Queue: 2 jobs
Job 1
Amino acid sequence: MKKQILKTCAIAALCLGGMSQAMAEEVSAGTLAISSSVTAETCKFAAIEPVSLTALVSDFTGKAEGTILANTQKFVTIKTEKCPLWSSAKSAKLTISGAAAGPGAAYFQLVNTTGNTAIADHAVGLTINDKPVARGAAINLKDPQYSPGVAGDNAITLKVGLVKIGTASVVQAADSKANLTVKVAYD
């Protein structure tokens, strides 16, 4: 019995010796590829929710041209991401642009959703802190008449509503849309 154990151990030793020789071999060199990109944070607007305004034809009855219908107004909050706080900037100017409509081209044109024909008797009116936001005009958000509409985190609260334009006594029913561009320049 002793012989058999020794014989097994001798064979095992040979096997282990062979294994350790195989493990001592080196693996050929390989390449570890690494790429890196460091970019500046980009100040941008967060997604702006679409606004749906509704009114009855009768809501415009008796309204003067340039009157924003109070019952159509909705609050819209425009937020930014990765921007310095405008409260620490020298100035921050908001500009909203789109096709012109109404007296003094101060309002934003709506177009018919079925044919993109301009709506002639109503448009979009915007206000910030109940002060009109004229199309294409740079509004100083640090100005005391507008600054209450700007939160400490740069969020801008606007009111969007339908405004009567033109002299027609009756506004025509229509489904319409407008795409406006919002920009802020600050230093």
Note: Confidence is low (pLDDT under 50) at residues 1-9.
Job 2
Amino acid sequence: MKYTNQFGESVQISASDEIWLNDEFFAREMAKLPSDAPRAGLAYRVSTKGQVDHDDIPMQKIECRKFCAQHGWRVVLEKAEKGVSGSKVSATKRDAIQELKAEAEKGNIDILLVFLFDRLGRIESETPYVVEWFVKHGVEVWSTREGQQKIDSHTDKLINYIRFWQAAGESEKIAERVATRIQQLNSSGHYSGGTVAYGYRAVHKGRVNKKGQPVKDLEVAPEEAPIVQELFELAAFEGKSAYAMAEMLNNRGLRTHSGVKFTPVHVLRILRHEGYLGYIVTRSVKSQHLPELEIISPELFQKANKMVDMRCTSNAEARKVAHKSDNNTLLAGLVYCAHCGAKMSGFMHHDRYKLRDGTVKESLKPKYNCYQRAQKLRDCDGQALYLADRVDGIVLEVVRELFSSIRCAPRDKLLEQKIRQEYQDKRKQKATLEKKLQDCEHALERYEAEVLRCLDGESGFSQEMLARLIAKAEAELRAARQEYAKVLQEAEDDRELAQKIKECYRQFCGWAEEFELAPLTRKRMILSELLEKVEVGKGYQVTVHVKLTYKQFLELCQTEENSENSLRNTTDGNVA
């Protein structure tokens, strides 16, 4: 018979040892003992399920049974713990220890025998007192390898504590080695176990471990990956909430890998999981990029998580999307009161009015509400309610005018030419400042060299005049350095801005084509990306604030005449 020990080594059990696993043989051996033979309770434990599978407990059983037979002890009780950590699970929560204690209190055992003392536990602050408890209750504690543990003297107690302190240290070393190996596996792109994220599955692909056993690897689940893609797109492009998406999945009859219904927490975990970018991610390490595991592009992941961040309670004031994804207003999250500056909420309002014939009519209309004014929380001389359709219409007119400007805007080549021209202007300015900086440095060097001549009486400058000239040269040099640093920073900012404007151009072109046919949720997301905010005042005076990057793009890619036309006041709305 063969078994694999705790170190992963294959050990051959001889026939003479294997017979001790036969309960009938062992019962006959026990029957040979006198009736007054000491009664022994045996305790076995393995820390992992892997040790259970590899027959580590039979090895302990053989050694303990042989030990009892050699010493003339009758075995009256055997307790085995399978897959129980001695360093993490308290003795108070281990059934085997509690049952052995109960037998000791009843006086049913005289000896407690284990293969090694660390089978009782590896918690240095607890296990020594477990041993002490048994000894105080008249039970001798023995190990097949370490002999009897006594507590008769102060030295015995110290040895007892040191033994389990050392065992606890071994547990920490084992845990550290295991954690390091798992990190190495993950960083090299190998799955090391644990919960499989939705969208993937663990399958055998022919890889084996050092023991020659097959181990699993991750692969994309074809039936789940499109659902993950859909969740990211709904979050990024329509601003769907986690609650709405969880409800959508449950209505389709879909379930998590645990077989339970989706909750908002499950959806948020999916949206936050970097593994969908093509990585194996754990708490402490992220693997190299694995293209075969990529489900979501980095751009989509970033957009979706940006929307999730905007929905956080901590970002309520800066939120540019509707608090609820089923909101029927176009500008929810973007509208502000022009009078008090408070964010306005969009909701469906019931209107009741009476006709001339006495008939009472009711209508349900979307409106924007200045909550601060309605609740008198701050001074506000604006309206409490605004018809959403009217405000939305004004903003849509402005947005359509902005999008129409893209048709007459220059294409990539002209845009590149303008950016290149500005870059060349910065280079000329930089060269001019470099020459100025060199002149200031040379002037200061000349004045400093004149100091020695002045001390020798050979200079035509007096000490006072030379001091003033040096101070002036130092001030000019400092100013030149500051100006030069400012130009360098501006050049760097311009490079970043040019890249952003190029991205804006591509984004803007896509929006211009898509906007009119897009559903409400998508239009709302486009506007949240394009607009900084919309201010509404009395008489429906609306000011539309375009985000700075897009405003700079519009100014850059339009001629002066077009720029003036697109940024001038409309009938009821202004663009800022």
Note: Residues 19 and 199 are 50 Å apart (CA to CA).
